[in-house]
Amino acid sequence: MEKNKIGKYLKYAIGEIILVVLGILIALQLNNLNDERKTENLRQVYYKQLLQDFENDKAYIKEHSSRIDSNMVKFRAFKDIYNQPNLPINKIITETTNLGWQLYNVQFKSNTINTLQNTGDIKLIPPTIREQLIRLDKYKEETEEVSKYNNDEAGKAGSTAANRYGSLEFAFKNIQNQPKLSEYVFDEKNLIELLITLERCQFMKVESEKGSLIRFKKILSDMDEIEILINKELKK
User: Fold this and answer.
1) Closest by CA position to 204, among listed 142, 167, 165, 159
2) How far apart are the C-alpha atoms of 43 and 234, rounded to whole Å?
3) DSSP assignment of 76-137, as one string?
4) How far is residue 115's CA from residue 123's CA, in Å, rounded to a whole number?
5) pTM of the model
6) Is the pLDDT of residue 13 over 80?
7) With contact defined as beta carbons under 8 Å apart, do 175 and 185 qualify?
8) First-residue to last-residue Cα distance in the chain
9) Which residue, 162, 146, 136, 157, is CA-closest to 209?
10) What percentage of the chain carries pLDDT values higher than 90?
11) CB atoms within 10 A of CB 128
12) Across 173-191, average pLDDT
């Protein structure tokens, strides 16, 4: 009888152990499923944020490109006048007032890619999309840096011109009753130096804007490709 009781107790104990192990395994499985669900939800949030960033970037590129196109029209009109033979230097300088002189650095506002990288959540994104996002972010940063450098160079030339020429109000209004001062400002040598400085400023500005337009095309193309991949992931 003692042996029969021991056998039953062993079977019962083994059964209890199996049930406990099964319970632990089930709990772990449920926990893993819950973690996977949370991860997938977070990934979906990032996908939607990325798509929203792309929309914002596209709107920004459209606005900035429109501003550049307007400046290019003014620049081409100026070049047509500039190419006329034997124009007085002060006439050419006067025409430069019709050009666009405001400098706008390219500066994207989106930051989801940076958030993904800084938090380490970039690993949640599939490798194919992840690599393209990182390349896109780097290219956007380079675009901002190139724009800033060229505009800084244009700004230096603009500052030199301003220091030499003062302002339009100074040159064409304030010194009208000051013949000696007017004679100095409109001295041919000074005007030639001024014109060269203005040319340098406008050249760097135009180069900056042309480069931005070229880079915008690649950024738009890259975003379109990534959008397709993200939308496929969202439909899974």
Assistant:
1) 159
2) 9
3) HHHHHHHTSTT--HHHHHHHGGGS------------HHHHHHHHSGGGGS-HHHHHHHHHHH
4) 12
5) 0.78
6) no
7) yes
8) 62
9) 146
10) 44
11) 11
12) 77
Amino acid at 23: G
**51 contacts 230 by C-beta, under 8 angstroms:** yes
* Both structure tokens of 198: 């203005």
The per-residue pLDDT for range 70-128, each reduced to its tens digit, is 999 999 898 888 888 888 887 888 888 888 888 999 999 888 999 999 999 999 999 99
DSSP string, the chain: -HHHHHHHHHHHHHHHHHHHHHHHHHHHHHHHHHHHHHHHHHHHHHHHHHHHHHHHHHHHHHHHHHHHHHHHHHHHHHHHHHTSTT--HHHHHHHGGGS------------HHHHHHHHSGGGGS-HHHHHHHHHHHHHHHHHHHHHHHHHHHHHHHHHHHHHHH--HHIIIIITTT-HHHHHHHT-HHHHHHHHHHHHHHHHHHHHHHHHHHHHHHHHHHHHHHHHHHHHHHHT-
How many residues can be counted in the chain?
236
Which has the closest alpha carbon to 198: 117, 82, 120, 109? 82
Residue 3 pLDDT greater than 60, yes or no: no
Token pair in block for residue 112: 């989801």
Task: Please determine, for residue 22, whether its predicted confidence score (pLDDT) is greater than 70.
Answer: yes
